[in-house]
Amino acid sequence: MRSILIPVDGSNQALRAVRHAIGNVQEGLAADIHIINVQLPMITLVEFPFQDYALIEKAQQQQAEKVLKFATKLLDAAELSYTKHFEIGPVSKTIVDYAKQTNATISSWVRVEWEHSAI
Description:
Elements lengths: L1 E6 L4 H15 L4 E9 L13 H25 L4 E7 L2 H12 L2 E2 L1 H10 L2
Helix pairs in contact: 1-2, 1-4
């Protein structure tokens, strides 16, 4: 069975990628769907040594849940199972590392959008 990884950042492009994957699975593609949101690491400021890192990580996790909510609603409405994942790190590297770990193909819809946004 194929695994499809869809990076979700809250953009319309990411939600189109989710809808595209849903359509493919509903048309008979046997695939596991993985959605991931990656939050950038917070910059540690030497001037503020009293930072509560657990609180910062909790805020990042809450932000990821907020961003993933729209994608999960689409997948739930389609009654498809999926794996939801959240990471903190450099975005591109973290997504590629997760794709390697899960042997997943990164959604081509998202890659096309990344390529166009780099132009």
